[in-house]
Amino acid sequence: MPTRTPIGGLVLALVAGCGGAATPSPAPVAAPDHRPVVGDAPPAAAGLYADCLAQAIAARAIRHAHEDTTDLLLFTCDGEPARAFYDALATWSARIGSQFEHDGRTYRTTAPVKGTMFGVDYCATDATSYACVVTLNVGPFVTGGDGGGDGGDAAAAAP
Question: Which of 35, 81, 108, 110 has the CB geometry, 3.0–4.6 Å to 51, for a possible disulfide?
Answer without folding.
Answer: 81
